[in-house]
Amino acid sequence: MPRLASSTLLASLAWASLVGCQPIHREAPAEAGAQGEGPAARPAPVPAPVLAPSVEPWQWVHIEGPYAMRDLHEGQQRYELRVDEAADQLRVRKVLGTSADPDSPGLPQWVRAFESHFVDAATLIHREDRLFMLHHSQIASGCTLRALDPATGQVRWETQLQGLGPVAHSKYRNQVQMRVHGDRVIVYGWESQGAYIEVVDASTGQTIEHRLVPDALVGAIEAPPDDPPGWVPPRNPTEMLVMDEGLRVEIDWHAGSSGGQVRGRRGDELEWERPVWALGPLAHSEYLSHLEVEPIGDRVWIRGVESYGKYVEVLEPQTGDVVAWHRWVDPDTYAGLLEF
Q1: Which domains does the chain have, with CATH numbers?
Q2: How does pLDDT run across 211-248, given as a tens digit for each residue?
Q3: For 100-115, what is each residue's pLDDT tens digit?
Q4: Element (H, E) at 299
């Protein structure tokens, strides 16, 4: 299981040797356009459509420990994120022949440098021939998404996200997470003045969907569920809510395994059925799980406490669609949740 990388800088000699043998590139221009007439223009965002909740639900992973910088480990290679305060740069470096030990020197392959933000934060996800990188300030609005060539570090494209748009502020908090689904990069931004979901084409960097997220699905779920008064013996309890118009929401779960099954019925007719996402796919042997469900407003709230963490899942009762999913995890216990 990968572990969190230390934020301690590697030895300056290792960095110096790499920088000395390879030029550091700052904000490399985009690849040339189709006619070879110079750098291609940054793609303009398309108008944001009305996005149904079932398309991309709001998701957030609340983690314990340092948030700002996380190296990406893949077998015997890693991609490192380091801030060089003297040069005012954020550097991305690929190293081969390493272990999960962040102090293992390895063999440097390339380094790419970008202009630093004040109080930087950055995230990396590798998919096939793209290394996706989120880069933003933790105390100012906005975020940049880039796609790098994992073999060379060359910038394939760069997009300034729409986010919340221009925001005037003094004290501020800005956090951003992402996931890659097929040919889309899905970005979740949570700032002091609001939250948003932005879907970007993984091949071009063009924004194809964008919407703001109501605070009832974001800030109202900042606190994790309370621990249960005591773990119940493994069994298969069923809880039921009666919503309006005769709709019953039933949920089955087992105290010895993660998640459960939730369904909507109207009379004897099954309207919909789906699994509880809980903490996401995970393997376990001995395990404890506790689940509670209640109506809040016109939605169904599922709160769960499990051996590996806690979660809140909010559903539309008429369809079973998830509109919000929050998870609280210890990254050292379950690093598989930390793809953002």
Answers
A1: 54-221 (2.40.128.630), 238-337 (2.40.128)
A2: 999 888 887 777 888 887 776 655 566 778 888 778 99
A3: 565 667 788 999 999 8
A4: strand 299-306
